[in-house]
User: What shape does this take?
Amino acid sequence: MTNETLTLSEPGDDSPARYEALTRIRLEDPDAVLRAARARRPHPGPVCGRQNFIIAADHPARGALAVKDDVHAMADRRSLLDRLRIALANPMVDGVLASPDVLDDLLLIGALEGKLLFGSMNRGGLPGLVNEIDDRFTGHTAEALAEIGADGGKMLTRIAFDSEHTTAALEATARAVDSLHERRMIAMVEPFLSTARGERVTNVLTTEAVIQSVAIAQGLGARSARTWMKLPVVEEMERVMAATTLPTVLLGGDPSSSTDEALESWRSALRLPGVQGLTVGRTLLYPDDGDVASAVETAASLLTHTTQETR
Assistant: This one.
């Protein structure tokens, strides 16, 4: 069995066997993943002025399955794949950020033609873990991402001055940045100032904290030529964006507010110089009204889709 013969029902089919073909191909022909990656049509590449829209799907690999009050919302892989297929079918969606298991499924399905591919690299800092800040790199490696023709890798970088593990986490991020740059891939760094006090790590989402996290994170690694920032939308985003010259994508964050409120908060931030687009997951994959296609379409309408002329 090969990916060329893989046929799936349309999203919305509730059959529990609708993704059984993925299990069969992984069992009988595991090399099909690499073949699908190498046969895939790549994205033409980011350009200034045309903002990129990337769907994030790396939360389950950290054990983060909750969306608002539903603590197991992302536990059903079939539902997640349905939602990802709907989102990626929108031509305004440029790509995906995912852990290896999800990315391989999407490659086998053929859902990533012409899309940007970002792999999720450090997934070891599980929520509530006693040493959560010690965020080991247990996901994609730069070598594996290069093998499948990915565009880059993403690393969550939490900087907790009250945790002895922060220095090691920063060093690991710097090594990952260098490894990606050596292979001419984008290093997407997602920094937070955090506190490890209490039962779990808490990110500090003040303007000043985000600015300080940017200052630290953009200096990690021996080179910065291919480093991007992935930043939360906070108050006074003008000041945040004044802190860096690196291409920056906005993250969706924990979808605690309504979908409409989240979309509105992104609107003005997307107009700031240096903002290259959105990297959003749960807010759009699990919208309040359940209509993934509509939520993705609305978010896409906020982005600039035309290339600026160079003068």
Remarks:
- The first strand starts at residue 52 and ends at 57.
- The CA atoms of residues 90 and 292 lie 11 Å apart.
- The mean pLDDT is 92.
- Residues 166-182 form the longest helix (17 residues).
